[in-house]
Specification:
Blueprint lengths: L7 E3 L5 E3 L2 E3 L5 H14 L3 E3 L7 H10 L8 E6 L6 H15 L6 E4 L6 H13 L8 E4 L3 H9 L7 E5 L7 H9 L3 E5 L11 H10 L3 H11 L3 E2 L6 H7 L9 H8 L14
Parallel strand pairs: 3-4, 4-5, 5-6, 6-7, 7-8, 8-9, 9-10
Antiparallel strand pairs: 1-2
Helix pairs in contact: 1-2, 2-3, 3-4, 7-8
């Protein structure tokens, strides 16, 4: 159990990941640094960033200024499209390490499945195999079933994570089933629909029934489906609120209602093969 009374999942390589992390997309400068400090104080131990976000430096500073031991944290970053390719991947990884001011990354992801994805993955496998353990796990983001099939056919190491957009309004049931069968944990970004669906009547009704906020219901729904949830906020109150979801569960009948809200609604582009 974590300090926040949450729980962890065991990934397919044996390491553990917190069930809830803090997303940092679109958080920049002092806002990013301040938000990460609040998140760490609230009990988040998984911090998710990416080269493309442009905030690795600020996140590194927030981590350095905290009193939390490095081994208690789970830091994720991602390689961007323009950085992909076998040789480029090693350079991109070193840049992320330097910006974050850490000796190792817990989870390194391919951000999008672009044309150089297979050679990028080959380099990531090499990073993972290094004796100095600079990365504890490797995975992917925005991969479809077709992308994953291709990767599994052409790799020696299975990704531990597929980070994709996922919410009751984008209930990717087939992808989740596929990942579960292949022991690839699904991690949900934009689980709060970037507030776009907060006014949904059904969601609000269930929120009132449980005496919880709409974001808490959305996050708890993901946990009930075995997802790693990485909500994002720059608001201190919301940051604390979003991780306070471990003292209740959603009844099966209400889960089914939430499952039925699927509209294939995306806040980010569909990763077409």
């Amino acid at each position: 159990m974590n300090e926040n009374n949450g729980f962890t999942y065991e990934l397919n390589n044996g390491i553990k990941i917190p069930s809830i992390g803090f997303g940092t997309w679109a958080l920049n400068g002092k806002t990013a640094q301040k938000a990460v400090k609040w998140a760490l104080k609230a009990g988040y131990r998984l911090i998710d960033t990416a080269s493309m976000y442009g905030n690795e430096v600020e996140i590194g500073k927030a981590i350095k200024e905290s009193s939390i031991k490095r081994e208690e944290l789970f830091i994720t970053t991602k390689i961007w499209d323009s950085e992909q390719g076998y040789e480029n991947t090693f350079k991109a990884f070193e840049r992320s390490l330097a910006r974050l001011q850490v000796d190792y990354i817990d989870l390194y992801l391919i951000h999008w499945p672009r044309t150089k994805r297979l050679e990028t993955w080959r380099a990531m496998e090499e990073l993972y195999k290094q004796d100095n353990k600079v990365v504890r796990a490797i995975g992917v983001s925005n991969f479809t079933i077709d992308h994953l099939n291709e990767l599994l056919r052409n790799s020696t190491i299975k990704p531990v994570i597929n980070q994709v957009e996922f919410s009751p309004f984008l209930y990717q049931k087939d992808l989740l089933s596929y990942c579960n069968i292949h022991e690839i944990k699904v991690e949900a970004y934009a689980p709060l629909t970037r507030t776009e669906k907060f006014d949904n009547a059904t969601l609000q009704e269930i929120s009132k029934k449980y005496g919880k906020t709409v974001p808490q219901i959305l996050i708890r729904w993901g946990l009930e489906h075995g997802l790693v949830e990485i909500p994002k906020s720059s608001n201190k109150e919301h940051i604390f609120e979003n991780i306070d979801v471990f003292e209740f569960s959603i009844e099966d009948e209400d889960l089914k209602v939430l499952d039925s809200l699927n509209q294939d609604f995306r806040t980010v582009n569909d990763p077409i093969f």
